[in-house]
Specification:
- With 301 residues, this protein is α/β, with parallel strands linked by helices.
- The protein has 2 domains: 193 residues, 3-Layer(aba) Sandwich (Rossmann fold); 83 residues, no CATH class.
- The strands form 2 sheets. The chain has a 6-stranded mixed sheet with strand order 3-2-1-4-6-5, sandwiched between helices. The protein has a 4-stranded antiparallel sheet with strand order 8-7-9-10, with no helix packed on it.
- α2 packs across α7 and α7 packs antiparallel against α8.
- The longest helix is centred in the N-terminal third of the chain and has 19 residues.
- The protein is globular, with a radius of gyration of 19 Å.
- 41% of the residues are buried.
Amino acid sequence: MSSNTFTHLDALESESIHILREVAAECKNPAMLFSGGKDSIVMLRLAEKAFRPAKFPFPLLHVDTEHNFPEVIATRNLLAEQLGERLIVRSLEDSIRRGTIVLKKNQQSRNACQSVTLLEAIDEFGFDACLGGARRDEEKARAKERIFSFRDEFGQWDPKNQRPELWDLYNTRVHNGENIRVFPISNWTELDIWQYIARENLTLPSIYYAHEREIVRRNGQLVPVTHLTPVQPGEQVEILSVRFRTVGDITCTCPVESTARNADEIIAETASTRITERGATRMDDQTSDASMELRKKEGYF
């Protein structure tokens, strides 16, 4: 086979780079959401290919719940520093102090509250577009969303009122106060992401790979034992070889049992699973009052 064969990864990469450049050309003040998770790290590499050797035409923005795994935050800081790109961090703690976020209890999942801090950051910096690493295969609400997803002056998303994207033509017009969320890797799958990580030899937080960790079994999921997710009465602590398929707020992110310690082994596991990464690992997606669609309507990523 010729080394010049154009692969499906090349096609996905080309589409994503086109979208990134379209945002840079059409939007006045965009930002890229960057958490240090695997999808945002792939986005970072795509931005390098789209704009290097120049600097990115947008800053990196992270809405930090302050309940993140330390390995993810360390990777976020390392990659931003290595690239020399501007990293803006806005914390939910700041919103809590301002009173714009009121928690029912201290250790509840903060994922659903991120939309408040995100909308505050958009208003603070006047961003008219936010690039995100969401993919359609992750969750059914995300499967409904356009690549260029319009949000009104309240930051809200209406799944029944979206702009057409015929022939890959994108409408970037917004009025003052309105915003567009842009998802360049919408058409990628979890398997595509891992194949790209392997091909590009990307650095990821270590918790994406198999490691031994204390867990308890709770409501059919493996819950990591942490200061935010302590052992409950009657639960038995086990030490298992696990990895995280997706990472987020510690209080709602669960690992899966695995022995895959490198990208190739994860690719083999991913190819054989029938359970979506969020379906298997996110406790906050399991309740209707915290459903992804409801959160997105309120301004979530």
